[in-house]
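Response to reviewer comment R2.3. The reviewers asked that we include at least one raw input/output pair. We reproduce the pair for YbaB/EbfC DNA-binding family protein here without editing.
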Amino acid sequence: MDDTTGGESRIEDLVTTITRRNAALREAQARMSELRGVGRAAAERVTVEVDRFGALTGLRIDPRAMRLGSEALAEAILGAAEQGLRDVRARADEVMRPLIAELAAANAQAMAGVDLGGQDLDDVLAALRDIRHDLRM
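Raw output as returned:
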């Protein structure tokens, strides 16, 4: 196998890896957009649902919670919303953890034993573009 074939193979492998990671990222983004967290308070008489940003998307108040009084009810709603936010953050961590772990492992593998020889990233990228150009010729 000559250098051109080896270079093309490495580029094809890189494209395959990037395509797979982009698909995983799109899937994670879709799952993140659908995430909801749930929080409860006042002996589960107040239940809230929040989106991934913590905005309330649902509020259920058991009629018995009305006996709490306005101040206690407000505190219960706020407490349930805070709990819902913690819940949605935990769910987001679960969605992102595998993707972050894969990217960290890939980065560590890519950088293992790499010595840029004092070059900055722009120089390295320019050299890679030159190699890609040479491979096309």
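The first helix runs from residue 3 to 34. The two ends are 17 Å apart (CA to CA). Further pairs are available on request from the corresponding author.
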